Amino acid sequence: MSKEKIEMKTNGTYTFTSNAAWHWKEQFRREPRMAAAVIALSIIAVGLPLLNARLPKQVLCGLEEHIELKQLVQQVGILILILAMGNMIKSALDAYIKRMQGPFEDDFNLRMLKKRLYVDYNVLESKKFNDDAHAVFDSLYRNNSVLRDGSMIWQRFLTATAGLVLYSAILIRQSIVAVLLVWVPALLILGLKERAAAFDRQLRPKADKASRKMKYVEECACDLTGGKDIRMYDLTGWLTAIFHREQATADGYVKHWENGYFAVNICDAAFCFIRDFGIYLYFIWKIINGNMAVSDFVWYTAVAASCQEACSALLDSREKLGRLSFDYSRLRQFLYSWEKSAFRGTISEKDNSINEKSETKDKAAHKLAGDAVEIRLEHVGFTYPGSTKPTIKDINVTLRQGERIALVGLNGAGKSTLVKLLCGLYRPTQGTIFINGRPQEEYSKEEYFSLLAVVFQDVKLLPMTIAQNVASDVGTHIDRERVRECLTLSGLWQKVSSLPQKEDTPLGASILDDGIALSGGENQKLWMARALYKNAPMLLLDEPTAALDPLAEQQIYQKYMEMVEGRTSVFISHRLASTRFCDRILLLENGTIIEQGTHDELICLNGRYAQLFEIQGKYYRVNKDGVEEVCA
Ligand SMILES: Nc1ncnc2c1ncn2[C@@H]1O[C@H](COP(=O)(O)OP(=O)(O)OP(=O)(O)O)[C@@H](O)[C@H]1O
């Protein structure tokens, strides 16, 4: 069990002390001098008010004792000089601590990003993960950045604590009553603040839920795919209403807990009045009774004022530290949970080093490439999280080395789910998938993904050049010859070669100034080229021709043998005649393989496949090249 897990309380949060220790450990790791700077600043911040208070006392004492003017000026001058130097050092330390918070925050932002980039795909899809990620971001950046302010809050807390102890020790020499006048209300307010904070912690997850929905609507507003439907089907009013409703809900919760803090602050102000007035009355009473010199009155009232200030600062920083601790708990839970990968090994930070170079990638990608793989599914089943019915049920099949498999079936039969299982993006909830006789979970993520080249139904091209997209690499090791070859095979080279920058043309018109946009079919050809470039022993194509025009589709079918040569391939298609060139067809229905064999065998069987083929045959005919075309 990791140390982090041990520190976590059973209710899934961390203690205040644990969060404090974690903060300073993380700070120390990045900037070892930070703790020293915070302590130095605290000492100076405690000392300066005392020097300030000492100054008028020194003058009054000098006047009372009739010391020489020169000596008095000297004493006052030294004190003012020390004060000025102290203030200078204080400002410098303050600036240093603030400056060092930027990199501290940046580092966590990077860790959060990596966390989302590196978790297993099924985790990324899960609602819980997305809710947690949102809650952390919302927590950390609700007002100012918690991470940016953390050390400053700790410094204020330290200064206030040390100040309160020191000023109380000075005051107690004069009177315990004055100390009690400061401490008793402070303890009462502390108790009230703790209650307000508990109320805040209780309501915050509810507010997070509402703000998560608002975030979703915001994302919808920027989403180009959904943007079309939102406009055409006039869904703007519906989205705005959701946003408005959730905003009101979230604001309602925030108002509730802020009201709690407000009530405590009112009590605090009332106690402040009683405390200040009480102390002054008490000291005036002492002077009247001849128990206090005027210089002492000046000195002790100043110390009492500093004591009160320290007390208020302590209560305020304690409240902020409470909130900080709550936010840290969420951050730590998020950073250290979801660690376990379905692949061999865990998702640790050392795996997440920033790597833009291509060498490691090239080595990993081609280490296992070469021989085609054999894939064996033994009693494989899969149920989506939160679903009661399995989508894939007890599949037993072996895809032999170099075999060309066609996976067919009606909408919702489970074809894409099965592809995701083969890809390792989902893990079977029942049974095992063996690759070359080795269970899936024995592979590391790197090893496993290097075995596969996939074209999914929905693909996002990244704002890089065409060549970089094909090679999935931004390094300098791109094999340009192969990029062109793959673009030719997938039928996109003609278009690319007509562009002024050819394969160096950047994609992403919405992000890059000189980026271009491709049509749906052109994108699909590019995804195909990318899968071919990877040269992996297994090729998975989930409806790779769905967006292609008949000519492009025909071209892909004609080149299919060339493309998949030496690899095991799975090809999903709704055009049944297009699966003729495959060695075996698997017909999936309700998550199980109900028929399998070659096209001719299945037609002879006269079962479900033959029935579907006949229905399609009414609308398509097969041309002389063996390719389907729509009947006129
Ligand atoms: N992320 C998900 N969470 C829960 N259920 C899902 C999810 N994705 C798909 N499903 C369910 O699994 C079933 C199979 O979906 P899948 O996408 O695998 O079908 P398919 O055969 O590829 O369909 P199509 O031919 O329409 O692409 C669907 O009926 C759907 O309800």
TrEMBL record:
Molecular functions per Gene Ontology: ATP binding; ATP hydrolysis activity; ATPase-coupled lipid transmembrane transporter activity
Ranges for domain ABC transporter: 375-615
TM segment ranges: 34-52, 72-89
Cellular location(s): Cell membrane
PROSITE patterns: ABC_TRANSPORTER_2 (PS50893)
Pfam families: ABC_tran
A single Gene Ontology CC term: plasma membrane
Membrane topology field: Multi-pass membrane protein
Alphabetized UniProt keyword annotations: ATP-binding, Membrane, Nucleotide-binding, Transmembrane, Transmembrane helix
Lineage: superkingdom: Bacteria
Protein name: ABC transporter ATP-binding protein/permease
